[in-house]
Amino acid sequence: MEEGQTVHLADDDEDDRMLIKDALEEANPNLTVIEAENGKELLENVKESDDLSQSVVLVDMNMPKMNGIEAIKEIRSEPGLEDLPAVMMSTSSNPELKKKALAAGANDFIVKPNTFKALLDIARNILTKFLGMQG
């Protein structure tokens, strides 16, 4: 497992955030999870990071202040952040939402599962796909 890997997680639902963080940390105990309650906070966290080479952004679609689409567009417009992996999460499996997320610059779109085991599988997939983690 790689050291120094970070997930920037943004979700306004505290329970969801806690579950996602638990799943990510179970998938990789060395992972650092930096939490945000909305897109604005996420953006500040990402901009304050020294090294984003081993980072991935996980952002909820619907949040106050700045939603997931706006946050990803904002990240993509920042110099040096064009290639930062970003995954949109939503409780909805609406194909239109997925299209919008990918058009905004998301690398992937996942529907939040309703079991921890499914969430853990998703966490492992994201870490493997974007951070090259071997689990």
TrEMBL record:
<feature type="domain" description="Response regulatory">
    <location>
        <begin position="6"/>
        <end position="127"/>
    </location>
</feature>
<dbReference type="InterPro" id="IPR001789">
    <property type="entry name" value="Sig_transdc_resp-reg_receiver"/>
</dbReference>
<protein>
    <submittedName>
        <fullName>Response regulator receiver domain-containing protein</fullName>
    </submittedName>
</protein>
<feature type="modified residue" description="4-aspartylphosphate">
    <location>
        <position position="60"/>
    </location>
</feature>
<dbReference type="Pfam" id="PF00072">
    <property type="entry name" value="Response_reg"/>
</dbReference>
<dbReference type="InterPro" id="IPR011006">
    <property type="entry name" value="CheY-like_superfamily"/>
</dbReference>
<keyword id="KW-0597">Phosphoprotein</keyword>
<dbReference type="GO" id="GO:0000160">
    <property type="term" value="P:phosphorelay signal transduction system"/>
</dbReference>
<dbReference type="InterPro" id="IPR052048">
    <property type="entry name" value="ST_Response_Regulator"/>
</dbReference>
